[in-house]
Write a structure and sequence with these properties.
- The radius of gyration is 18 Å and the shape is globular.
- An 8-stranded mixed sheet has the order 2-1-3-4-5-8-7-6, sandwiched between helices.
- It has 9 helices and 8 strands.
- Strand 7 and strand 8 form a beta hairpin.
- It is of the alpha/beta class.
- The longest helix is centred in the N-terminal third of the chain and has 16 residues.
- The protein has a single domain, classed as Rossmann fold.
């Protein structure tokens, strides 16, 4: 809860979802949503996925058991706190981004927008199927875990060499190229297929898809030479040094954009309508 919270004044809420094998403390440190929430006046909820390794069940179907968890979680928080139920959002990295996508599809009546970092799923089985969803996506072109060109990368499988693919693999293993999946969301949202492209520094470009249904947008940040990381995270930028075991797998983190600040600025533009 932000220190400025006032009884009786509903606050926006952001779900902050960690990646595979990660945990609450790591996600809090990497994303730094809490300090931003303290100044911007919104609530942050950072839940813990279970299992070994810790994970979210991101299967994009109504039968996904974690949907019951997230519905119950929101029910409990809304019963205990003063939540603006029209302004509940979800953001996450990797497995947490996939889970955020599933929440968007299966709980579109409760989630107003999503912010995805190195994790996305197709808009299959969305309920209802024609509900538009504002989406902001960040992806590094040298991601070795969930590669930009699809499939599962050597950072996750342990295969050598630890190099990001430069073309789609023969076996995508259920993970289509990121540009293709973003394109599917663009179509789902009724947006124009051709984005307006804005350069951001020398390593980042923002692709903005507009003309979408109900005024939503799809905003896609493509980060050249970056890996499987949270853009702008001071914790992850601190790992950008030769020989660091985490950086060896996760790759380089850009300091040219701040995903946390951009996601929140994006979220502020959207609310559910009855």
């Amino acid at each position: 809860m932000p220190p400025t919270a006032v009884a009786g004044k509903p606050l926006p809420l952001v779900l902050n979802l960690h990646g595979l094998t990660s945990n609450v403390s790591q996600q809090v440190a990497v994303s730094q949503f809490e300090p931003l929430a303290a100044t911007e006046g919104f609530m942050v909820v950072t839940p813990q996925g279970l299992g070994n390794p810790a994970k979210w069940g991101f299967d994009n179907t109504p039968q996904n058991a974690d949907l019951s968890f997230f519905n119950a979680l929101l029910d409990q928080i809304e019963a205990r706190g003063c939540v603006d139920t029209a302004r509940v959002y979800s953001s996450g990295i990797s497995n947490g981004g996939m889970m955020s996508t599933t929440l968007a599809c299966q709980m579109g009546n409760r989630i107003a927008a999503i912010g995805l970092v190195s994790g996305i799923r197709e808009p299959d089985n969305c309920t209802p199927p024609d509900t538009p969803m504002p989406i902001m996506v960040f992806w590094g072109t040298k991601d070795t875990v969930l590669p930009f060109y699809g499939g599962i990368g050597p950072g996750l499988t342990g295969e050598k060499p630890l190099v990001a693919p430069t073309a789609p693999p023969a076996d995508l293993k259920g993970f289509a190229p990121v540009e293709q999946v973003v394109g599917e969301w663009v179509s789902h949202n009724g947006c124009g297929p051709d984005p307006t492209i804005f350069p951001v520094g020398d390593k980042v470009e923002e692709r903005v898809f507009s003309g979408c249904t109900a005024g939503v947008q799809v905003r896609f940040y493509v980060i050249t030479d970056a890996g499987h990381d949270w853009p702008g995270s001071k914790v992850m930028i601190g790992l950008n040094k030769p020989g660091d075991p985490y950086a060896t797998v996760l790759g380089n983190t850009t300091d040219q954009v701040d995903a946390t600040a951009l996601v929140w600025a994006f979220f502020k533009g959207y609310a559910l309508t009855s």
